[in-house]
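cron nightly-structures :: item 1 of 1
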Amino acid sequence: MHFLPAFLALGLGAFKHCVAAPSSTIHSNHVVHETRSVEPLDWFISHHPEAHKRLPLRIGLAQQNIENLESMLMAVSHPDSPEYGKHWTPQQVVDTFAPSEESVRKVFGWLKDSGFSKEKIKMSANKGWIQVDATIAEVEDLLKTEYQVYRHNESGEEQIGCHEYSVPAAIREHIDLIRPTVHFDHRPSPKSETKFKRAGDVGKSPGTGPKTSPTPIHTLPVSPGLADCDQMITLGCLRALYNVPEFKPRSLDKNSYGIVEFTPQAFLAGDLDLFFRNFSPNLVGVRPKTVLIDGAVVQTTNQSSNLNGESDLDLEYSMGLTNPQTITLLQTGDLVEGAGFDNWLDAVDGSFCTFEGGDDPTQDGIYPDPLPGGFKGPESCGIIAPPFVVSTSYGEEEVTISAFSATRQCTEYGKLGLMGTTILYSSGDRGVGGHNNGQCLNSAGQPANNGTMFNPQFPASCPFVTAVGATQVNPNSTVFDPEAACEQVIFSGGGFSNIFSVPDYQKSAVASFLTNHPPPYTSAQFNTSGSRAYPDLAANGANYVVGIDGKFELVFGTSCASPVVGSFITMVNDARLAAGKGPVGFINPAIYSDDFKDAFNDITQGSNPGCNTIGFNATEGWDPVTGVGTPNVAKLIPLFLALP
């Protein structure tokens, strides 16, 4: 499964939109700081918001040393580094990246000069964010912009925002972003989604979720053998495909593996037991350790493949592969407002909370939830230590998030890597197209039905996460034959970012692909200027046997592959912890290195079509379809175990 599970949805309740103020009103010392990357589809401008309404403004201050984040992360993650494995403490991270006193002073001065009293300005504990109590009229004057209220065509839901905004040139370098402004939630909230469902959408969660086969499995029980792995993937098929040694964990109390799900997506206990009775009997009755984030519930009232499929899949396979390791379910968001990626980040990183200004009301749930029936408690800030591995089978199109917001969130993934956490995201199920029915971009970079430009996915495109693509056992082949890129029901998401530059760890691999296997496309179709490429690696994503709503179904997607890879990294961490070492953390520098080449099965068949093209080809070496290939776990464990 994958983005939009590969169920997909970003949702958020009432939000707004803004346009630039007439040019004559923009002061000469102001410069445009952010412009919305894409105008929302299915929304229309309804009216101008009332000028006296309050608009809690949050200003994200530029952090220190961000330009050094990649090199700092490489120091603790590259196998050749003498600092390998020396992960940072949370306090080290806060101290290193806190904004400078100069940034704090200048932004405070700007606000005071603009007429805001000291009582209306608050600063977060880590000095990363400033919150201003202001009316819409005051914010419009401050940012030289104009807000508009947008209404959704189907649901009638409203949002508020602006097309672009400006800040004084002298302080621009001291500000990352300001919210709410240009950031727009392109989909209605979970509350309206219960009435206006769309295939692939799950609440507000941006997701890549499972795609189910139109033909259900009628044969019970399903054979756990290897003879039919080209038609039905099971735990045994995966163990054979990836040379998984018998797992005898020795670090159960020290190890941790987190699975992120977004309400109303939820597992059903009966589905887990249906699966376990057939494939892992000693897990019958066992449940994940559930951490409820921001009023989340594991809801069972509404049941369907769309609502249960992703969570059922993720837990059945992660629990089955790592048994008896306890899996932590990071269930995120209430039933009314839902959640986005920043919400689960809040729970493992308190300094990123809304209280600190971190969440985006157009992408994330804002708690306490003011909507009727919403969660009224405080938001979940730093309620659990970051698990050593976190898998998220959801995503969104890069174009639906501003570059500033994407960069800010990506930075947080890098910080988690510094602290020793492996962050996995599925790469998408529409090949080089977007999750929204494979929609591509037009020449202006906007999603369009007739678009021809490839549509990269986020957070898979963040250079500080490990993006997971999908492969398949070819029809009439066995688990002992080479796999190909997935071309059944879904296509492995992959391509080149339009936001992030190519990181050092993959420069050589990407250059080799472009030189030795040049794609037949130009810059009119994908970013050829040297950008982050994805996925980083892959695993099977076709024909998974999953217990869903009391029966077995076949499921497809990169969202199948991500929790499987997470299970393998959890096995690696178990071995290292038992040897008195730390978790592997950010794995990309290692898996791209020459020393790890033999630990991956190179995938050289298939492609990832989209945008009326065949997409990219899976070829020898790294490629933007299956990355460096699929893991050989028996080889991967000793390689990581040999590192400090």
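cron nightly-structures :: done
Residues 211-641 form a domain with the Rossmann fold fold (CATH 3.40.50.200).
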